[in-house]
Amino acid sequence: MSNKVSNFYKNIGIWISEKKSHKLNWKELIKTCNSHGYNLIKLDLERPLEDQVECHVFLHKLTDIIAAADQGDPKASCIIGNVEQYLSNHPNITVIDPLENVRILLNRYYYYSILQEETLFQSQGIYTPTFAEFTTCNIEQNIEIMRHRGVTFPVICKPTIAHGSKSAHEMILIFNEKGLNVCRPPCVVQSFVNHNAVLHKVFLIGNRYHICERPSLKNFYSSEDLDPIFYSTGEVCKADSQSTLSILDPHDKADIKMTLNENKIKSIIRLLRKKIGLLLAGFDVVIDNNTGDHAVIDINVFPSYDSFPNFFDHLLDCIDEHVNNMSNGDSCNNKSSSKADYFCNHRPNGLINVGLDPLGVIGMNINN
Ligand SMILES: Nc1ncnc2c1ncn2[C@@H]1O[C@H](COP(=O)(O)OP(=O)(O)OP(=O)(O)O)[C@@H](O)[C@H]1O
Ligand SMILES: O=P(O)(O)O[C@H]1[C@H](OP(=O)(O)O)[C@@H](OP(=O)(O)O)[C@@H](O)[C@@H](O)[C@@H]1OP(=O)(O)O
Ligand SMILES: [Mg+2]
Ligand SMILES: [Mg+2]
């Protein structure tokens, strides 16, 4: 990575996985950092951080390593221990995002529980589909757990660990009790919501957001005859996915298209800012084709930001705001800014609304 380090600039130390690194346009990111008065320095987690650069900002996606460390991997534990030590030795570094906040999203059961606890959601037509966690392969017990928690077939079985390995995105659609034998604990089963194969992805950078549509699963119904369907999220829900699982059955095609309600999206964002506190996050919403209610089915740390217009500029603006908050004595990195300047960029049906001003486009006053 060629990066002229200027002494007049502040330093952003960055660490992301090789996979993410390959997709990143480093040249463009470095240019944007420089134009905002920052150097960008790639950190090597195998060497002492103290010996590398004086970081003003620590920008990372350490989900894979945190998840491995939390599962007892010694090398990962050592790396995360060193990072945590370094950050605690330098409390003035702006961390995007704090490791404790990131940990919340590593466990699906945990973050679904946070969503479910939100009592205000119900009256606003927002919910997270009922879910339960399996920690054993005992089918009788698992059926009872599902009943107790009101989880109904079909269900999607998802690994409890939400990030960190390819297997975190290996899903199973299960139609009946006998299909439950394919579940591999620890996993979460979640009631399936029919949504006409349209997924709405919301990407967040602090108070800014961008929504895009993606393909998703067609409508399914519980059945005693159907075998489980295995799929990986990447095969079905990427912008260019063309899975047969997304092709609507003829009788579903007549359905009226449900429209996304942006006020609901803002309510969800408010809750996430308050309860999870990440600047860099994304979440997935499907619209129930019977009720129009909005179901939050997934929350992700530092997602792809695929199609987010001027992503780097917004990222640097957001970093800048937080660095300034820190120097103004706000020691809590991710406290949401009291000035609620939501920047909306909505892309329905592939069209992009660009050139919106970050201040007052929506005129939302969101008090966290
Ligand atoms: N409760 C549900 N009802 C209907 N469809 C669902 C439900 N949960 C998941 N899906 C479908 O399965 C896909 C994968 O689920 P989910 O988003 O939870 O997995 P993920 O691997 O964490 O995704 P990401 O790549 O966004 O991190 C969703 O994008 C959606 O198409
Ligand atoms: O970009 P990364 O390598 O971090 O991978 C992320 C992936 O982006 P990619 O599929 O385009 O690579 C994201 O997809 P979108 O929802 O944003 O489409 C989402 O699946 C995250 O959960 C993944 O993070 P992980 O769970 O693997 O940590
Ligand atoms: Mg998802
Ligand atoms: Mg996810």
From TrEMBL:
EC number(s) on file: 2.7.1.134
GO CC annotations, alphabetized: cytoplasm
Pfam families found in the cross-reference section: Ins134_P3_kin, Ins134_P3_kin_N
Residue intervals of the Inositol-tetrakisphosphate 1-kinase N-terminal domain: 12-101
Cofactor(s) this protein requires: Mg(2+)
Positions annotated to bind Mg(2+) 1: 284, 298
Organism: Parnassius mnemosyne
Function: Kinase that can phosphorylate various inositol polyphosphate such as Ins(3,4,5,6)P4 or Ins(1,3,4)P3.
GO molecular function, one term: magnesium ion binding
Binding site for 1D-myo-inositol 1,3,4-trisphosphate: 20, 61, 169, 201, 300, 304
Enzyme class: transferase
Example GO biological process: inositol trisphosphate metabolic process
The protein's name in its UniProt record: Inositol-tetrakisphosphate 1-kinase
Signal sequence extent: none
Binding site for Mg(2+) 2: 298, 300
Domain of life: Eukaryota
Binding site for ATP: 108, 158, 190-201, 216
Domain Inositol 1,3,4-trisphosphate 5/6-kinase ATP-grasp: 140-319
Cofactor note: Binds 2 magnesium ions per subunit.
Subunit structure of this chain's protein: Monomer.
Keyword set, alphabetical order: ATP-binding, Kinase, Magnesium, Metal-binding, Nucleotide-binding, Transferase
Family label: Belongs to the ITPK1 family.
Reaction(s) catalysed by this chain's protein: 1D-myo-inositol 3,4,5,6-tetrakisphosphate + ATP = 1D-myo-inositol 1,3,4,5,6-pentakisphosphate + ADP + H(+)
